Amino acid sequence: MEFIDETFYNGWNHFATLSPFIIKEYDNKKTYQFLTMDRGDFKVKVKEYLINKLTKINPKLDLKDFDVEVKDHPKHKIKKIMVKNVINVANQCQISIQCNKKVAELIYNIGVGQSTGSGFGTIYKTENHHLYK
Questions:
Q1: Hey, where are the domains in the chain?
Q2: Neighbours of 43 (CB within 10 A)
Q3: Topology of domain 11-132, per CATH?
C-alpha cells in the first residue's frame, strides 16, 4: 500500500470516483429509487445528501459555502452493479465540491454516497489522477 499525500483547498476541490457511488432515495421505508446523473435534480440531491451526511458526522462543520458541481463528461457512466442478488444503480463521474479544506479532506476520507464501507464511492483528487492508475 502506498500513501498518497493529497492537498485540499478552501474553495473548489475536484474529485473523481475510483468506484461508483450509490445513493438511494426512499419514498417510504420499503420503496426507493436510485439517484442517477440523468436526473435533472441530481446536483441538488447529491448536495443535500452530502450536507446531511456531514452534519450527522459533525454538526459543527462550516458548510455555509458548500456546493457541488457535476459537469457533463463523456466518460461519466451510470452502472448497474449486482450486490447480494440485488441490482444497484451507481454513478461513476467527476465531482467538484466547494468547501473548506477540512470538509474536503473529510469527504475524501469517507467517500461519496452509501455503502462506502463496502468500497462504493471511493474518490480521489483529479489533480493526482496519474497516481491512481
A1: 11-132
A2: 16
A3: Alpha-Beta Plaits (3.30.70)
Tens of pLDDT, residue by residue over 4-57, are 788 999 999 999 999 999 999 998 878 999 999 999 999 999 999 999 999 999
The set of cell numbers assigned to 86 is 440485488
- Give backbone dihedrals phi and psi of 28, rounded to 5 degrees, phi first: -150, -165
User: What are phi and psi for residue 117, nearest 5 degrees?
Assistant: -70, -20
What pairs with residue 32 in β-bridges? 26
| Contact criterion met (CB below 8 Å) for 81 and 90 | yes
Q: How far apart are CA 3 and CA 89, in angstroms?
A: 30
Q: Do strands 24-26 and 123-125 pair parallel, antiparallel, or not at all (unpaired)?
A: unpaired
| Segments in the chain forming alpha helices (H) | 42-57, 101-110
**CA-CA distance, 17 to 93, in Å (whole number)?**
6
Q: Dihedral through CA 79, CA 82, CA 87, CA 91, nearest 10? A: -20
Alpha-carbon distance of 53 to 49, in angstroms, equals: 6
| Average per-residue pLDDT for the chain | 92
Region for 112 from its dihedrals, namely left if φ exceeds 0, alpha if ψ lies in -120 to 50, beta otherwise: beta
